[in-house]
Amino acid sequence: MARLLLSSVVVGLIVLFSAGFSEARDYLVGGKADAWKIPTSDADSLNHWAQNSRFLIGDSLVWQYDAATDSVLQVTKRDYVTCNTSSPIETYTGGQTKVKLEQYGPHYFISGAQGHCEKGQKLIVVVISDRHHRHIAVSPAPSPAESDGPAAAPAPAPASDARSLSGGLFLTVALGAVLGLIM
Ligand SMILES: *[C@@H]1O[C@H](CO)[C@@H](O)[C@H](O)[C@H]1NC(C)=O
């Protein structure tokens, strides 16, 4: 019985650890070096790339570009839509830019190069979930059309917390029992 309890605890720790502390990732914008440029087609667009990734709080976006001719502007939804570069939230220069995603919801980026945003050099990244929910995220991301600015989107409902906790406990007991039988 002591052994069963011990193995339950060990397995429980492993389950909680792997669910809660999965590593933050760096995403190279566009998936390759020098992708921060005017896209040649729709399929080549940065938003097409972004739609195939799941961005979580703590992940980072990395841009590589020619510092002499380009930059990265983080802007409001309105400025994203109108390609207005006059008052960005943040301006990044230097050819190598790393931005950590710290909030839920959409983040809007446009090129600082004259005329590039209008030709499609722009990016929406939607943060859908924090690390604790990587394996069980249930709430769909709010549509970028629904809110203004990166801070506006609400966090997913806390219901998933209870679900993950009871799920983790169940796993813990089940795996612990199996281990206890084996050992
Ligand atoms: C761009 O944004 C600035 C600041 O919000 C505003 O004053 C300006 O009118 C905008 N320009 C255009 C073309 O919308």
Automatic annotation (TrEMBL):
One of its GO terms (molecular function) is electron transfer activity. Residues 144-159 have a biased composition (Low complexity). Keywords: Cell membrane, Disulfide bond, Glycoprotein, GPI-anchor, Lipoprotein, Membrane, Signal. Residues 138-159 are annotated as: Disordered. The keyword Signal applies. It is a lipid-anchor; GPI-anchor. It comes from the Eukaryota. Its main location: membrane. It is found in: Cell membrane. Residues 1-24 form the signal peptide. PANTHER family: BLUE COPPER PROTEIN, EARLY NODULIN-LIKE PROTEIN 13. This is Phytocyanin domain-containing protein. It comes from Erythranthe guttata.
